[in-house]
Design a protein that fits this description.
The complex is a heterodimer of chains A (about 190) and B (about 190).
Chain A lengths: L2 H6 L3 H25 L5 H30 L11 H32 L4 E2 L3 E2 L8 H35 L19
Antiparallel strand pairs in A: 1-2
Helix pairs in contact in A: 2-3, 3-4, 4-5
Chain B lengths: L1 H21 L4 E5 L5 E8 L2 E7 L2 E7 L8 E7 L3 E2 L3 H8 L11 E11 L4 E9 L2 E4 L2 E8 L2 E11 L19 E12 H4 L1
Antiparallel strand pairs in B: 1-4, 1-12, 2-3, 2-12, 3-6, 4-5, 5-7, 7-8, 8-9, 8-10, 10-11, 11-12
The chains are: A mainly alpha (about 190), B alpha+beta (about 190).
Chain lengths: ~190, ~190
């Protein structure tokens, strides 16, 4: 990989992982919100089966992403950002990564505690992490729901920040994560 | 005199043993509920889930050398279903799955037994959800100091018994094939009844 390219833009792999995970998260909210209010039936099982398969996919992609990020550090933040902005940006991204792990793991724990084991698209079954436990299930469900709200807030902040960088600051922070574009706007 | 008495005793023992072997009827057992299990394993949304029936009675007449006179009669209280999740248990007891309001009992009765390389196989009928169908079982039988242990498996297709109405007729989320596994600790019936 040319080093010049990876210093000003995210790598193609980082972009792919970012947008793939973003699309999966949008799908996860749609599936989760729809399924949770349904009565126990085949429709609910079908939606949650997909929700679980996608969730475990997010977990696996996030592991790949963290390893990739470690091996291919992201481009520097624009020079014009204030220390506060830098801290906010780092905190938001750190929270994002924490949630990308916490959401699937709390979901996996929930399924284990309720004895609805997690299958990955019917191809194989993930092992239950904990034994059946009603109290644990309720606590995990509350946590999963609460974290999904936090994720939503962080996602909104993330999108607003990207738009602010693009339209107000007119820097390349948004473009460098956008495939098939060139970051020519300078730092 | 004493030697003669011993000889007579030994002769008697030998003849009892011989007669006993030649005409041994199947021994009558009953399952000890606290030490016995009756489980089923279904596939739901691609993953296995296990359920147990906590209440059942098993009248087991069996002897390895008296297969012709051996006979199992197992009665299961479907209300004792337990899949470790109340929501799932309630749904399964409901009208679209076991319909326990109408069919609370299930029964398995054997017709004949055959020896297999690993144990025994029984032909018999299962009555479930008001439908009676042939379901073979494979099992091993091991004598224990207090009686015997009977462990085995069976496979059945739930839809043949009408278990799964409406949406649950679909096999997309809950597979048709259900595995059954049992482990019965048997004690001689005369001791317990």
């Amino acid at each position: 990989m040319p080093t010049q390219e990876s210093r000003t833009r995210f790598t193609a792999m980082a972009q792919l992982l970012h947008w793939l995970i973003a699309a999966l998260i949008v799908t996860q909210f749609a599936l989760g919100w729809t399924a949770v209010d349904l009565p126990l039936g085949t429709h609910k099982l079908a939606l949650f089966a997909r929700h679980k398969s996608f969730g475990m996919t997010v977990l696996m992609l996030t592991i790949v992403r963290v390893v990739w990020r470690w091996a291919n550090p992201p481009p520097e933040l624009p020079a014009g950002m204030t220390p506060l902005e830098r801290t906010l940006a780092r905190a938001t991204h750190l929270a994002f990564y924490a949630l990308l792990f916490a959401m699937p793991i709390t979901g996996w724990l929930m399924s284990s505690a309720k004895k609805y084991s997690v299958s990955w698209f019917g191809l194989f079954t993930w092992p239950d992490l904990i034994a059946q436990n009603k109290t644990a299930f309720e606590a995990l469900k509350t946590t999963h729901d609460y974290l999904s709200d936090v994720l939503l807030v962080i996602a909104v902040l993330h999108i607003l920040a990207a738009l602010k960088h693009h339209f107000l600051n007119k820097d390349d922070v948004f473009l460098r994560m956008l495939p098939f574009t060139k970051s020519k706007r300078g730092p | 005199m004493r030697r003669a008495a011993i000889s007579v005793t030994m002769l008697c023992m030998a003849s009892v043993a011989t007669v006993g072997h030649a005409a041994s009827p199947a021994t009558s057992y009953t399952a000890d509920p606290s030490a016995s299990r009756l489980d089923f394993i279904g596939i739901q949304a691609g993953a296995e889930f296990k359920g147990s029936f906590h209440r059942f009675t098993a009248a087991i007449d069996f002897a390895p050398d008296a297969l012709a006179s051996s006979h199992f009669d197992v009665q299961i209280d479907l209300n004792s279903l337990d899949t470790m999740d109340n929501d799932r248990d309630t749904t399964m007891r409901g009208p679209d799955i076991f319909d326990i309001a109408h069919f609370s009992a299930s029964r398995y009765v054997t017709r004949s037994f055959t020896k297999t390389p690993t144990g025994y196989s029984a032909a018999g009928t299962l009555t479930l959800h008001g439908v009676t169908k042939d379901v073979p079982i494979d099992f091993v039988f091991v004598s224990t100091p207090g009686g015997a242990k009977l462990e085995g498996t069976a496979k059945l297709n739930r839809l043949e018994f009408g278990v799964g109405q409406g949406d649950w007729k679909s096999t997309e989320q809950v597979k048709d094939l259900v595995k059954v596994a049992f482990s019965l600790m048997l004690k001689p019936r005369s001791l317990s009844e």
